[in-house]
Structures are given as C-alpha cells and as structure tokens.
Amino acid sequence: MMNISGPREGDFITIKSYKHDGSLHRTWRDTMVLKTSENALIGCNDHTLVTESDGRRWITREPALVYFHKHYWFNIVTMIRENGVSYYCNLASPAVLDKEALKYIDYDLDVKVFPNGEKRLLDVDEYEDHGNKWHYSADIDKILKHNVRVLVDWINNGKGPFSKEYVEIWYNRYLELSRQQ
After folding, report:
1. Could you tell me the residue ranges of all domains in the chain?
2. Residue 26 falls in the annotated catalytic set
3. pTM greater than 0.85 (yes/no)
4. Which candidate in 8, 26, 56, 81 is catalytic?
5. Residue 5 — very low, low, confident or very high, per pLDDT cuts 50/70/90?
C-alpha cells in the first residue's frame, strides 16, 4: 500500500519486479519520487541502473516517468525521447511499497504505445507459456484482460499518464527537484 508515511517527494526508491512464482525478474535503482498518495506513486528515473534476473546490468537511455496505482493491474512507464513520448505499460499486480522497494508481479503482457499513437500488445506467447507453467488462475486471467481494456481506454482518451499535461507537469517537476539535489 502506498501512502504519505512512505517516501517523500525527492526521495529515491528502488523498484523490483517479480514473476508469478516469486522469482526476482528485474530491479531499477534510483527512481525519484515525485508524488505519493493513498492510491498512487509517480516517479522519474534517468540513466538508472537496471539489473536483470540473470545478473546482466544496463543503464536506461532516457528519462522515464513511472506510474503505479494500488487498484489497477498495470503500471505505466513514460519514456521521454527526442523523437517524442512513448509508453511501455506492464500488465502487473498492483504495487506494494515497503522499506526495501516498490514491488509488483509482472504478468508478461505489455502494451507499447509509440510516439505516433500506434499501440501494440506484446509478449502474448510469454503470457501463455508462463500461465501454463505457473498455473495462472482464471481469476488472474480475467483481471488482466479487464485491465488491458481499461489501459486501452486510458490510452485512447488521453487519461492520466497518457495526457500531454501529465508528461509536462511531472517531467518539469523532476527537473526542478534534480536541480535541488
């Protein structure tokens, strides 16, 4: 659960994604918290160290706003690139924030939105493979499919992270806070 007693604006947190079987999938270091509320967390990272489950490490190439909500089974990464804004949306459990990190279960399916507005549903085969391997329940399947529809509605209607204003407001806030560090 995310709330005011957690990190404050300008604090840095780690983000950890897990798979359904409990194994660590990926870790992002140093995401700056821009806003927390009872239901959501907005953050930003730039040139952040990412560690894969197999130990490989890489650095992100561009600033990315992140959006997590405790009631939705997706999170949204807004990548701010020279050729425009693109989005990578993970179908995932609602995030949990503890002293160690913000954590969620990644359920394989992703929606990518390109700067021209084109949308692609990715990793359907991986979702089916992992669903069989780890026995995703019918309830989880139903929840995830419903959340794909919610996500597409947000995309099509420019809601929340998909609005131009959101990107401007939160990226500018990140730049302000970065100058104060």
Report:
1. 12-171
2. yes
3. yes
4. 26
5. low
